[in-house]
């Protein structure tokens, strides 16, 4: 992998970490209420569920 590929990979990893942290903070702030979390983040509930699954945050965390 070239320098650009490694840089892109690190960037993607940092973005994923930031997104996961944002999800966790919003879940905490809204006491796990999915509708409120989605509204707070400006995304649809299906998108929120997809992102939760992507980051390994099952409904057990909600």
From TrEMBL:
Q: Which Pfam families match?
A: HTH_8
Q: Which residues form the DNA binding HTH domain?
A: 15-53
Recorded GO molecular functions are: sequence-specific DNA binding
Signal peptide start-end: none
What this protein is called in its record is Helix-turn-helix domain-containing protein
UniProt organism field: Jiella pacifica
Q: What is the lineage of its organism?
A: Bacteria, Pseudomonadati, Pseudomonadota, Alphaproteobacteria, Hyphomicrobiales
């Amino acid at each position: 992998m070239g320098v650009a590929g490694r840089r892109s990979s690190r960037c993607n990893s940092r973005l994923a970490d930031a997104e996961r942290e944002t999800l966790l903070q919003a879940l905490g702030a809204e006491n796990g209420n999915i509708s409120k979390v989605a509204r707070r983040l400006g995304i649809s509930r299906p998108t929120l569920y997809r992102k939760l699954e992507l980051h390994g945050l099952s409904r057990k965390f909600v």
